[in-house]
Amino acid sequence: MRTENKTKALRLEFFKGLYNASEKAASELYSSLGRYMSQYKGSPELDGSEEDAITVRNITYEIVESQISSEIPQPKTDAASYSERRGRNAEAIERLCRSIRDRLPFDELNDMDERYTYIYGGSVWYVDWDNSITHAGEVGGVRVHCLSPMDFIPQPGIYSVEDMEYLFMRFTTTRAELGRRYGLSDEELSLAECEYEYDTDMPGGDTVTMLVCFYKDEDGEIGRYVFSGDAVLEDMPRYYMRKATVCSVCGSVTDCGCRGRRSVLTEVKYEKLEEEMILRSGVKIPSVSPKLDGERISLGSTEIPYYTPKLFPIVIRKNTSRERSLFGQSDCEYIRPEQQAINKIESRILKKLLRAGITPVVPEDARVTLNNSVFGQVIKMKPGESVAQYGKVDTTPDVSQDIAEAERLYDHAKRVIGISDAYQGIDSYSGESGVARQLRISQASGRLESKKKMKHTAYADIDRLIFHFYLAFADEPRHLSYKDAYGRIHYEEFNRYDFIEYDLGRGEYYYDDDYLFSVDLDGGSEYQRESLWERNLENLKSGTLGDPASPRTLLRYWQCQERAHYPHARENVEYFMEELEAGGDRYE
Question: Has this prediction a pTM greater than 0.85?
Answer without folding.
Answer: no
